[in-house]
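Priority: medium. Attachment 1 of 2:
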């Protein structure tokens, strides 16, 4: 049984987000993109195995742009998120092109991951302390029913340039009680507000803990993701065949409710950065340069 933690990176949407991999925007003068910083931080934290979950259509571009460079530092493998990867007896609904969601993306890597693993999004900047805390948890955790999530403060994860989607967490004594996905959260001073109907808004404190999809799981989670997928399809395909998504937090919540797993929340004071909007690019470039000025990163990573 392999106990060395693996980093699973959800990158299947990378090409579509930026209109083709070659257009991925550099975030510094040296041409680094966001995922370069995540991989650099992951390496410094202790990770040596990386699984990229990608779409087959972007494979050659992805390997050339990102994968090849990382093979020098990591044991790298590629898994494919494919609409046709369904349990026996299920077929793709006519007209569906949308991927099945983050839970399905991670389950796509189940053949490659046999031990503890962390999960991140390819296009989010998480910060070095986040990777260190999740690696240390995975390397020391002996309870197969205990998972972890790096919890960010909401005020550190919003943008001036529009709404964001976040998993709002209810936490008690460092343990996650549940996550509620909100897809339209707006910055509101040092706090935030969300809406479901674009008319009424609900205030949320900026100190609220949110999930940024930085998780630490035991190998058991791969089975949970795949085994719970049919029930999700049975419930959701009849009502929303073209758009329903099997989200990772959905599967975590189920296990919390059934009391068959618990999730430790690892607090993180890092600021999240991402390019949800083109206008976000300037702020992440400024933040990266500030971190270089502080010595957190060198001008050229890996040097």
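Attachment 2 of 2:
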């Amino acid at each position: 049984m392999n106990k060395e933690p693996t980093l699973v990176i959800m990158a299947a949407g990378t090409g579509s987000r930026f209109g083709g991999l070659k257009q991925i925007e550099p975030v510094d003068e040296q041409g680094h993109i966001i995922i370069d910083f995540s991989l650099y931080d992951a390496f410094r934290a202790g990770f040596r195995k990386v699984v990229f979950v990608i779409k087959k259509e972007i494979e050659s571009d992805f390997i050339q742009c990102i994968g090849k460079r990382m093979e020098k530092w990591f044991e790298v493998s590629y898994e494919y998120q494919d609409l046709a990867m369904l349990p026996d007896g299920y077929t793709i609904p006519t007209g569906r092109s949308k991927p099945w969601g983050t839970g399905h993306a991670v389950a796509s890597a189940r053949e490659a991951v046999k031990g503890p693993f962390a999960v991140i999004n390819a296009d989010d900047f998480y910060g070095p302390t986040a990777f260190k805390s999740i690696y240390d948890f995975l390397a020391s955790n002996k309870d197969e029913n205990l998972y972890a999530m790096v919890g960010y403060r909401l005020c550190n994860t919003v943008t001036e340039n529009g709404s964001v989607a976040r998993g709002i967490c209810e936490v008690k004594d460092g343990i996650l009680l549940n996550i509620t996905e909100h897809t339209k959260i707006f910055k509101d001073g040092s706090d935030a507000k969300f809406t479901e109907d674009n008319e009424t808004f609900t205030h949320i404190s900026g100190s609220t803990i949110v999930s940024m999809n930085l998780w630490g799981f035991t190998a058991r989670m791969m089975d949970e993701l795949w085994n719970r997928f049919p029930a999700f399809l049975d419930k959701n395909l009849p009502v929303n065949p073209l758009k329903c998504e099997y989200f990772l937090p959905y599967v975590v919540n189920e296990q919390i409710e059934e009391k068959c797993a618990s999730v430790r929340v690892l607090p993180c004071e890092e600021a999240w950065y991402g390019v949800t909007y083109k206008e976000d690019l300037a702020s992440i470039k400024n933040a990266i340069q500030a971190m270089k000025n502080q010595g957190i990163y060198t001008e050229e990573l890996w040097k």
